[in-house]
Amino acid sequence: MPVTERQFEAAAAIVGDKNVKPVAPFTFSDQCRFYGLFKWGTVGRLLPPYEADDIDTDRRPASRPGILSVTARAKYDAWAAAQDMSKQEARDEYVALGQKLVGPPIDEAIQKAS
């Protein structure tokens, strides 16, 4: 069942909360995946052609960050990796990843947001 925008925002708040203990520790790869899915689920495509509901398209990076900018490059790559899915698919995958790594707090947040 697809998650609503409200459920997605509730899950994102839990994932971003430093006081919530995850079931499994986040790896750098997990953090990048969360970032890419969140960006895709909120602001839209990284690269043209943009969709009608994409926001801040003029503030997107003009090119991939350099190799010495490790974190910026990883974030760019994570966002670019989500290019072939819809916003709804990105939101669904974000929540599923949150349920896997954070566990019950995500389920509780989704229930409250329903």
Helical coverage, percent range: 55-70%
- This entry's quaternary arrangement is single chain
- Rg measurement, Å: 14 Å
- Number of H/I helices: 5
Strand content: under 5%
**What kind of sheet is the major sheet?**
none
Low-pLDDT residue spans:
none
Count every beta strand, where a strand is a DSSP E run of 2 or more residues: 0
Assign an overall shape: globular
Helix and strand run: HHHHH
- By secondary-structure content and strand pairing, the structural class works out as mainly alpha
Summed over residues and divided by their number, the pLDDT gives a mean of: 93
What is the terminal-to-terminal distance?
12 Å
Notes on the protein architecture:
Helix 1 runs antiparallel to helix 5 and helix 2 runs antiparallel to helix 4. It is built from five helices and no strands. It is mainly α. The longest helix has 15 residues.
Descriptors:
mainly alpha; 56% helix; 5 helices; 114 residues; 0% strand; globular
Topology overview:
Elements lengths: L4 H12 L11 H15 L27 H12 L5 H15 L2 H10 L1
Helix pairs in contact: 1-4, 1-5, 2-3, 2-4
